[in-house]
Design brief:
Chain lengths: 243, 243
């Protein structure tokens, strides 16, 4: 893990870019250490494009709640090498959406399952590296998009003790089944009128999770319209489980 | 409005029982005045039985957020006179539930619609009286059970600017239609495994509300199992809209 830049904000939060092998990432840490860590996931649109939304949440968690937060670039996103099957699946998805029809399960599988297979080990390697820093300590949370990555991490990574998930992406049937094996506390966001997401499928997924403590927060509006006031209950959820 | 008893708690909250004509009620006020008011609704089980839950919420709002809170006995509950049709409807409901079948729309209508017709004017009269007190000032919220009473109040009472509703009671089809006319911000609680409440019907009702800002918080467990941590987002919802 090699830090490549750093910036200290007025609120005391230190933002550092890093690389871990070929994977770029960003770490935000509060003034106090060691801090519990929240891994911040995101859709495969590239870290640079996602930066404002990710940094907004990360700096809020760090400045207001004293959590560290980190994110990494997904395989096949940003400046990382593409792979042919993923490009093909993205093209198939685009065509299906433009045709206005439902997106077939085979397209969803081709798009999401390889991403889960590749991304989850990278998140775990990043977690190893992050936990070796003196600034990081205590239990770990995961939050954010590509809910299938969150599902797999919740199942295989015992260091992750709570997850805040965004029920806003296409979910392979196999991942809905895998969700039944999730047992950690969950805080799930759903946009009621999400143009890219079937509401009933999202409710079925929420129902499938095996966790005894799971909360769904549904709000009006489209995919990117999560209200600002949802930041606070998300942070309070992690405060209950990471302290 | 006549106060019949008062008690000051360690947290500075003053609890006073009152009567308004034949209607008993309870008012909780914080140290600071004038305070915005939250009307706390409840199922028709009698104020005495509901007291621990109502007082828990009211004192939290008053002590932690500086809100006043008030509740009144519903018609036909507690020591208030019964009426024959309501007793008949309750008996029909009990029989339908014991038979394990779905509760017919006619039973729901007979149970709920007359209660809404009788209770809503009483809540409004109570609001008149409460707003004449120097301790009360500013906009008003409604929260709690008998969601049909909340729907009607939200439609007819312009002084109520925000409502926290509990999607946990049987709702007449006519009230689902009326919900489309609700436009104030809503904060709706749903118990995912509510034994007395059809989940899909509750989701349909949430969908029906005409409000641009509406949030659903769904949690695991049965009817009375709303987690303690839901108190805070409920209070923060009112803080956003009553200040």
């Amino acid at each position: 893990m090699r830090f490549t830049s750093e910036q200290r904000f007025d609120d005391g939060v230190l933002e550092r870019e890093f690389t871990l092998g070929e994977i770029p990432g960003i770490l935000w840490t509060p003034g106090s250490a060691p801090a519990p860590l929240i891994l911040i996931g995101h859709p495969p649109l590239g870290l640079r494009r996602m930066y404002p939304r990710l940094a907004g949440r990360a700096r809020y968690y760090a400045a207001q709640y004293g959590f560290a937060a980190a994110t990494i670039e997904l395989p096949g996103s940003g400046d990382r090498p593409r792979w042919a099957a993923a490009e093909q699946a993205r093209a198939d998805l685009r065509r299906a959406v433009e045709a206005g029809g439902p997106v077939g399960g085979d397209i969803v599988d081709a798009l999401v399952l390889p991403l889960v297979e590749k991304a989850v080990p990278e998140w775990r390697t990043a977690l190893d590296a992050l936990q070796s820093l003196p600034e990081i300590g205590g239990p770990v949370g995961y939050e954010g998009g590509v809910i299938s990555i969150g599902i797999r991490l919740a199942v295989v990574e015992p260091r992750i003790v709570a997850a805040g998930l965004f029920a806003g992406s296409l979910v392979p049937a196999a991942m809905v089944e895998e969700a039944r094996r999730v047992t950690i506390p969950l805080h799930v966001l759903l946009q009621w009128d999400d143009e890219g997401n079937d509401r009933q499928a999202a409710l079925n997924l929420f129902d499938a999770f095996g966790s005894k403590e799971k909360t769904l927060h549904a709000n009006m509006g489209g995919h990117t319209g999560v209200p600002q006031f949802e930041l606070e209950p998300g942070a309070r959820f992690f405060e209950r489980h990471l302290r």
